């Protein structure tokens, strides 16, 4: 599968000069929900008033466009580079900041196309993403990295080390699941961070529990605690545990606003339909339906996982700012 280069890459130049903080989101293996965590961190940061960009560096599995309901978008060229695809604009009335994304998925002729590239081609694409995407003024750039420690990781680490501004690379958020196999693999990822000098902002244990759609319980399916134990073993922060919530999946896939039965409590807040979780409506009084990237962040605020990811995001911000001081 051949993806045409829209413009010639500018070697040894990064287009992230106006980005304040760069955060890599890593995982030791696939299937742990790394892209889901990246998406939710971005939504939480945006809702907290921070402008955000997502660079989807998972070249063979670019899921970010689908997660953000912008998979039909196309990348536009401007003088000097590529323009990232907007998810939503800033809203001064609500305090929400802008969110944009760049992914190889926007350049594929068909979403089913396989990206069959050897290491050098992947390395060149990563460097072009870092040199040619015009982010502009951005508070946080999240780089959704492929699983493992592959050529893409080495290219990312080397390019950022050589060309990023001093202190610009804030560090990495490492995603794992509770199972022993995942925590073993994430140890390799943490060792990779040590070897490349990337600070670990913290570990997130994803898929830790299951939010029942029909009752108010969060059930433990795959065990828990593996992520925290791994973080403690490496003396890095543990950011928190994130359960599986089918309603987040429905929000992403169909745009349906999450609604929970009475008595559902997330992080100490009643989000059930008879609590504080009454679904929002449009000005006309009717709930809009369907996938709409402009409404994704507002609908996400009604999701159980928003109340879980919000304090995790606050810890990430705190750890980033602590490194800056």
UniProtKB/TrEMBL annotation:
One of its GO terms (molecular function) is ATP-dependent FeS chaperone activity. [4Fe-4S] cluster binds at residues 212, 215. The keyword Iron applies. Belongs to the Mrp/NBP35 ATP-binding proteins family. NUBP2/CFD1 subfamily. Residues 263-292 are annotated as: Disordered. ATP binds at residues 28-35. The lineage of its organism: Eukaryota, Fungi, Dikarya, Ascomycota, Pezizomycotina. It is found in: Cytoplasm. InterPro entries: Mrp/NBP35_ATP-bd (IPR019591), NUBP2/Cfd1_eukaryotes (IPR028600), P-loop_NTPase (IPR027417), YlxH/NBP35 (IPR033756). SUPFAM superfamilies: P-loop containing nucleoside triphosphate hydrolases. Coiled coil: none annotated. Keywords: 4Fe-4S, ATP-binding, Cytoplasm, Iron, Iron-sulfur, Metal-binding, Nucleotide-binding. Component of the cytosolic iron-sulfur (Fe/S) protein assembly (CIA) machinery. Required for maturation of extramitochondrial Fe-S proteins. The NBP35-CFD1 heterotetramer forms a Fe-S scaffold complex, mediating the de novo assembly of an Fe-S cluster and its transfer to target apoproteins. PANTHER family: CYTOSOLIC FE-S CLUSTER ASSEMBLY FACTOR NUBP2 (PTHR23264:SF19), NUCLEOTIDE-BINDING PROTEIN NBP35 YEAST -RELATED (PTHR23264). GO terms for cellular component: cytosol. It comes from Lomentospora prolificans. Its main location: cytoplasm. This is Uncharacterized protein. GO terms for biological process: iron-sulfur cluster assembly.
């Amino acid at each position: 599968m051949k993806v045409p280069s829209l413009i010639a890459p500018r070697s040894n130049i990064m287009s992230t000069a106006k980005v304040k903080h760069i955060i890599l989101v890593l995982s030791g293996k696939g299937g742990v929900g790394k892209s889901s965590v990246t998406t939710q961190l971005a939504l939480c940061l945006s809702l907290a008033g921070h402008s955000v960009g997502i660079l989807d560096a998972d070249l063979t599995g670019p899921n970010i466009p689908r997660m953000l309901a912008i998979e039909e978008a196309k990348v536009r060229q401007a003088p000097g580079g590529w323009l990232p695809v907007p998810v939503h604009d800033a809203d001064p009335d609500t305090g929400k900041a802008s969110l944009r994304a760049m992914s190889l998925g926007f350049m594929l002729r068909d979403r089913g196309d396989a990206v069959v590239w050897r290491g050098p081609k992947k390395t060149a694409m990563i460097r072009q993403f870092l040199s040619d995407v015009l982010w502009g003024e951005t508070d946080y750039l999240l780089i959704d990295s492929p699983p493992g420690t592959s050529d893409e990781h080495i290219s990312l680490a080397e390019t950022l080390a050589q060309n990023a501004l001093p202190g610009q690379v804030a560090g990495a958020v490492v995603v794992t699941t509770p199972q022993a196999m995942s925590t073993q693999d994430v140890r390799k990822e943490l060792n990779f961070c040590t070897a490349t000098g990337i600070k670990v902002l913290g570990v997130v244990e994803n898929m830790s529990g299951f939010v029942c759609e029909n009752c108010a319980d969060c059930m433990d399916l795959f065990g828990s605690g593996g992520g925290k134990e791994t973080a403690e073993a490496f003396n890095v922060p543990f950011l928190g545990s994130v359960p599986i919530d089918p309603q987040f999946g429905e929000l992403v896939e169909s745009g349906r606003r999450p609604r929970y039965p009475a008595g559902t409590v997330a992080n100490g807040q009643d989000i059930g339909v008879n609590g504080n979780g009454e679904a929002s409506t449009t000005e006309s009084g009717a709930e809009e339906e369907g996938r709409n990237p402009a409404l994704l962040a507002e609908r996400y605020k009604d999701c159980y996982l928003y109340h879980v990811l919000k304090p995790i995001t606050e810890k990430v911000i705190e750890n980033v700012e602590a490194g800056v001081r």
